[in-house]
Amino acid sequence: MAGSIMQRKSKAAIHSNNAVITQRSSSNNNNMKIASVQRRKFGTSPFDEHWLNLDCCGLICACLTYCLHLYGCYSVCFILIPPWMSYHDSEGIRHLTMMGQLNCFAFVGVAVMAVLSHLKAMMTDPGAVPPDAKPVLSADELAALEQSEKGPSLKPEEVNLRPSSPTSGLQEGGITMSSVTAAGAGAAVAAVAASLPTKPNPVTPGPAGKGRRLCRRCNSFKPQRAHHCSICKRCIVKMDHHCPWVNNCVGIGNHKFFLLFIFYTCVSCCYSMSLLVMRFYLCVGTHTRHHRHQHHHGAVSITTDAGVTIGGKEEGHCLDDPAQLLNLIGLVVEAMLFGLFTLCMMCDQWSVVTSRLTHIDRLKGETSSSMNGRFKKSSGLNEVFGIGRKLGSNRQDSFRADWLSPFVSACFPSSMQDEIMGFCRPCCGTSSQNSDVEMPNRNRMVRSVDEIV
């Protein structure tokens, strides 16, 4: 047999600090090709163990975000609430009232949810296209591919087989078939089918295949809704923008966590601002009553560590130390600045979710009609938050409690995964996380995007 027989062997070697994946190829001609890829603990390459952008500016913005939330918790729980919602026991020890404890717990809980959402948005793959991604074939292309693999089929009327004597012949399609009997009819049909002209395979995988785009930077397949990020150095499916505050791209994989981060941050800012306004109103009212009582009744007010006593009634102070006023001023600036910023971001992202048009798509001149196609308007919510593992009603766009949880990722049936992402992987096993989801009140599985979006 002409030619050489190639044998490939692959071996992966993982070291303690720096893992290296090595692929070796050997042949009978003693030609060897070695390809090594560095595998880091954190990074954005396809071979890194955990997703994390190591951009210096993004890491600084992420640390600043955590410091701002920590400062808000300190200002509210240790400066604003204790002089306001507290009491002193017989030994003069201050204790928070039940209302004070509830407010501290609620504010810290909202801040923790914001930080957890930020961590998930930063360390979740936003939808990077793997190097071995292939275009998803349409229904017509799949049918044509199956037909080409099985071979062209012939209808019974297209092949005219007539019984003949052993000495007679049958001329069909340029092939002479003699001694056709009932036992040899199958072989005759195969011979005729092989002689007929066949059409080339309409689905040609590769750069010249139909619907296949190549990224000039990644040099790999680029799905229709994917855009290349110069900071992450990957193509991201449904990329909206690269956010330095979450140190990551906002794509189909972490869009939910990004929305939760700005939502809980906005709630935290509104919460602290409402507490500040209420405290300011009460402090102004306390001092106003104090001066009126002195002016009209000539009563003497006594100022103690517990507060101001007016006519035998104790009123709490506004601050334990006048220098703490600077902390509250900083809290006001933080709450107003980031509260307005996250509120504007939520209004802007609402149009992105409902129209399924990212900011990059709008800059490219895409319209909602061209992008949505057969999708209905509520499909954006299902695409961002998933359809859930257990639905309580037949409406897939109804609100669910897991929308507000940073611990639950967007869940889709495995049968829809490739169509939503816009690519498929040739040798990718099905994980339990992306298993098919059974719809309620139906004794069948979800098999297409049409059934949900």
Notes on the structure:
The chain has 453 residues and is of the alpha+beta class. Helix content is 38%, strand content 15%. The protein has 10 helices and 18 strands. The strands form 8 sheets. It has a 3-stranded antiparallel β-sheet, with no helix packed on it. A 3-stranded antiparallel β-sheet has the order 15-16-17, covered by helices on one side.
Give the ordered list of helices and strands: EEEEEHEEHEHEEHEEEEHEEEHHHHHE
Strand order of the largest sheet: 1-2-3
If you compute it from the alpha carbons, what radius of gyration comes out, rounded to the nearest whole angstrom?
Answer: 34 Å
**Biggest sheet, open or closed, and with what strands and sense?**
3 strands, antiparallel
Return the average pLDDT rounded to an integer: 73
The first-to-last residue Cα distance is: 55 Å
Short description:
The chain is an alpha+beta fold and 453 residues long. It has ten helices and 18 strands.
Main traits of this protein?
disordered C terminus; alpha+beta; disordered N terminus; three-stranded antiparallel sheet; 38% helix; 10 helices; 15% strand; 453 residues
